[in-house]
TrEMBL record:
It comes from Candidatus Gemmiger avistercoris. ATP binds at G629, P630, N631, M632, A633, G634, K635, S636. One of its GO terms (cellular component) is cytosol. CDD domains: ABC_MutS1. Keywords: ATP-binding, DNA damage, DNA repair, DNA-binding, Nucleotide-binding. Residues 703-719 form the DNA mismatch repair proteins mutS family domain. This is DNA mismatch repair protein MutS.
Length: 872
């Protein structure tokens, strides 16, 4: 490209673009951000903007599109969401004052993991930037991983060491769900990790070069950020990989942000073993924070438990749900805090009232640091500080050790509150554009300038009367015109009385016009007041922001304590509203629940009541509950409810039960229902078996395992054999608490053969051909599978269910053992020698893949069968 021939501005653009070839450059020109060439083509396509051209000195105009600067956030947000990065190029000087070409520079690169604008962030979700570094040491793979949320200043890191490093990394990614991931080249060899990121996240991946992880660079970066003694202060061993990951993350921030670095004040080291292990599949199955279908919040545990008042609380609650504790003492500290808040009705109400006025301190702090906070937002921070003493007091008044500790951690920030209150007006404008943010009495020049602007006329009038008095000229007037500005007009008859200090400016037919130094000064003041006032307000506001920024550490600590109080008070509120009890949590092997309920389904059942059920599980005689019962009886619900109750207890929440004793579980594993993994191209059976294999490999004695109808994806005998072998393996080799639901009746015989297996079933009442679900779990095996009755309940036409009964009777008659219940599945139908069913129906049945049918499709399919039957 012949860049010499282009216009100076385009030349400047090319210089800047050269440094950011992979980002879309938003190039500020006056009131617009403009994009050129390929960037313009991309942006106009993605944002549906009109593509135009710009004269650039060359014959061909440069393709161009633009967005107004005041609404750029939404456009940037959309590009980020589509996986692009945007470099913001600003005018670095006032175009009106610039001599020649306006100076421009990239002030920030916006990427999914470095967003700070509230319009681009979910208020109730953290936005994590992740950095992973891995290395082989003495034949073993290790990895350092760091997750940082620039918008809140939180940073956490840990070192992973595992025989299979891939799954360990994936588990961490699942915990934090980062929106952007920085990886070292070594990670590319972990195909499971790269496949996971590609298929299961929408995170942007940045490959960092090996040079980013050089020892010298890491040392310099860490020392620069955390001080020379960082290694000792932060407790990293010499061969720990965490600093590499942290340093790479900091360097990336340095490259892309101007201020992001200062926000990271410390890194919290967390150990994997501090939290309950939850595989990605289990998180999804238990619908902790989003539903399987629809991926919504409504219908999840988060939805039921969210009684928080603040955004900070909402984010922390989500984090707690994603990371249940395993230390009984830590859990009990939370539970006693909830208990105290639960009992202290008045203090809790006051606390929640105060919290409801608390703004998002964490994210406000970041925007203040970036200098992008508005006067209104800063005022909100001040108002929030004003609530802190009350929050402190109410928390301490409830009288639980954890609450007292949190109260201690809340800094009332009175100095900041006063600083803000003394600086800003009571109701500041949404932007500083037109001024009006600094309150009167804060700065004498501001007051004077405002006086002049608003009282300019008064000044003139008083100057006028003063001059009349001094000169004795009664008709002396002060006037204004565009050419001379302000002047003093004296009529011809009095020109002799004019003092020497007056300078003549203009002669009129019947008088003279003069100016004086005093009048000139006043004129300058009046005319320059507005401009000066705006500049001064900007300066004072910037000083305020930097004063607040200096207190980040105090703000951060306070924000975290407030967030915890909010979550705990929310637990107490949820407990009251939903009738939960405090669980007894200890290190025992027992899980004993009286009248347990499913926290989500009981909320979803409008009008009808949820039927509570008891549970007794341990690591001995009652280690495996084998649950049988017809479809729709409530097996899946019962098993999930037990998992959720254990999980709720371990995040410190009360639980939906009459009483609950939970021995801490170190992990929950689930294999539940049809998985959505079909999209990934694996057959259901393969997915199921991979998941079961995973469970058998990773479950420990203290884990809770839920197996829902395993072996369903293959033929009956294969399925039953696998199910039985799995049960034997778990009982004999792992010994963990397990809930196992199956519709294979034949498996109920295991109770006699295997130690620890107990038969249960979910009772149904049969009357003639109709059944009623009782939803009660009772000891012993189910007596029938009631498949046809359930089908009838589901609305299958009577002629079809009647026919099904007939087929079943024939099958039973031809079976060698009459008493043994027979599964009516499609294989046995096929086995039937002389099928009375018309051939086309059989054909259709052969071809259908039941596992992939939705209930609606299944119903439609039945109608289709019926129609075919009627036709033939
Ligand atoms: P299964 O796994 O045995 O086929 P599910 O657990 O899926 O049955 O339960 C089917 C439906 O029955 C649930 O969606 C729920 O609406 C209802 N249900 C289950 N258990 C209960 C209960 N204890 N009380 C009330 N309704 C229940
Ligand atoms: Mg089920």
């Amino acid at each position: 490209m012949a860049e010499q021939t282009v216009s100076p501005m385009m030349q400047q653009y090319f210089e800047i673009k050269k440094q950011h070839p992979n980002e879309i450059v938003f190039y500020r020109v006056g009131d617009f951000y403009e994009m050129f060439y390929d960037d313009a083509l991309t942006a106009s396509r993605e944002l549906e903007l009109t593509l135009t051209g710009k004269n650039c000195g060359k014959e061909e105009r440069a393709p161009m599109c633009g967005v107004p600067f005041h609404s750029y956030e939404t456009y940037v947000a959309r590009l980020i969401a589509k996986g692009y990065k945007v470099a913001i190029c600003e005018q670095m000087e006032d175009p009106a004052l610039a001599k020649g070409l306006v100076k421009r520079d990239i002030i920030r690169v916006v990427t999914p993991g470095t967003v700070i604008e509230s319009s681009m962030l979910d208020e109730d979700k953290n936005n994590y930037l992740c950095s992973i570094y891995c290395k082989r040491r003495r034949g073993r793979w290790k990895a350092g991983v760091c997750f940082a949320d620039i918008s809140t200043g939180e940073a956490r890191a840990t070192e992973l060491e595992a025989e299979k490093l891939g799954p360990a990394i994936i588990t961490e990614l699942c915990r934090f769900m980062p929106s952007e991931i920085l990886i070292c080249p070594g990670i590319l060899d972990f195909k499971d990790v790269t496949a996971y990121i590609k298929q299961h996240t929408s995170a942007l991946v940045e490959l960092r070069e090996d040079a980013c992880y050089q020892d010298a660079l890491v040392e310099a970066t860490m020392a620069g950020q955390f001080g020379a003694g960082w290694r000792k202060a932060m407790g990293y061993e010499a061969d720990c990989l965490v600093p590499y990951a942290v340093a790479a993350l900091l360097n990336y921030l340095q490259e892309t942000q101007k201020h992001g670095l200062e926000r990271i004040k410390s890194v919290e080291n967390y150990a994997d073993a501090q939290y309950m292990r939850l595989s990605p599949v289990t998180r999804a199955n238990l619908e902790l924070t989003e539903t399987m279908r629809g991926r919504e919040k409504r219908g999840t545990l988060l939805w039921v438990l969210d009684k928080t008042e603040t955004s900070m609380g909402k984010r922390l609650l989500r984090a707690w749900i994603e990371q249940p504790l395993v230390d009984a003492d830590a859990i009990n500290a939370r539970l006693s805090a909830v208990q105290a808040l639960y009992t202290a009705n008045i203090a809790r109400a006051d606390l929640k009232e105060a919290l409801s006025h608390v703004y998002d301190m964490e994210r406000l702090t970041t925007r203040i640091l970036y200098g992008s906070a508005t006067p209104r937002e800063v005022k909100a921070l001040g108002d929030t500080c004003a609530r802190l003493p009350q929050i402190r007091e109410q928390a301490a008044a409830c009288g639980a050790p954890l609450l007292e500790q949190l109260a201690q951690q809340i800094d009332p920030l009175q100095d900041l509150q006063e600083r803000i209150e003394n600086t800003l007006v009571d109701d500041p404008p949404a932007t500083l554009k037109d001024g009006g943010a600094i309150c009167s009495g804060y700065n004498s020049e501001v007051d004077e300038l405002r006086d002049i602007m608003h009282g300019g006329k008064g000044y003139l009038a008083s100057l006028e009367s003063k001059l009349r008095e001094e000169t004795g000229i009664p008709k002396l007037k002060i006037g204004f015109n565009k050419v001379f500005g302000y002047y003093i007009e004296v009529s011809r008859s009095y020109t002799d009385s004019v003092p020497d200090t007056f300078t003549r400016k203009q002669t009129l037919t019947n008088g003279e016009r003069y100016i004086t130094p005093e009048l000139k000064e006043l004129e300058n003041k009046i005319l320059g007041a507005n401009e000066r006032l705006l500049a001064l307000e900007h300066q004072l506001f910037a000083e305020l922001l930097s004063d607040i920024s200096a207190q980040i550490v105090r703000l951060q600590r306070t924000a975290l304590a407030v967030a915890q109080l909010d979550v705990l008070a929310g637990f107490a509120e949820a407990a009251l509203q939903n009738n939960y009890v405090m669980p007894e949590v200890d290190g025992s092997d027992r899980m004993e629940i009286k009248e347990g309920r499913h926290p989500v389904i009981e909320q979803m059942l409008k009008g009808s009541l949820f039927v509570p059920n008891d549970t007794l599980l341990d690591e001995g005689e009652n280690r495996m509950l084998l649950i049988t019962g017809p479809n729709m009886a409530g097996k899946s619900t019962y098993m999930r409810q037990n998992a959720l109750i254990a999980l709720m207890a371990q995040i410190g929440s009360f639980v939906p039960a009459a009483s609950a004793h939970i021995g801490v579980v170190d992990a929950i594993f689930t294999r539940v229902g049809a998985s959505d993994d079909l999209a990934a191209g694996q057959s259901t059976f393969m997915v199921e078996m991979t998941e079961v294999a995973e469970i058998l490999r990773h479950a420990s004695k203290d884990s809770l395992v839920i197996l829902d109808e395993i072996g369903r994806g293959t033929s009956t005998f294969d399925g039953m054999s696998i199910a039985r072998a799995v049960v034997e393996y778990i009982c004999d080799n792992i010994g963990c608490k397990t809930l196992f639901a199956t519709h294979y009746h034949e498996l109920t015989g295991m109770e006699q053969d295997i130690y620890g297996v107990k038969n249960y079933n979910i009772a149904v009442k049969k009357r003639g051909e109709d059944i009623t679900f009782l939803r009660r779990i009772v000891a012993g095996p189910a007596d029938d599978s009631y498949g046809i009755e359930v089908a009838k309940l589901a609305g299958l036409p009577a002629s079809v269910t009647k026919r099904a009964h007939a087929v079943l009777r024939q099958l039973e008659a031809s079976a060698p053992d009459h008493n043994k219940p027979i599964q009516l599945d499609f294989e046995t139908v096929e086995a039937y020698n002389n099928p009375p069913v018309p051939s086309e129906v059989v054909e259709k049945l052969h071809n259908v893949d039941i596992e992939t049918l939705t209930p609606l499709e299944a119903l439609n399919f039945l109608y289709e069968l019926k129609n075919t039957l009627d036709k033939e």
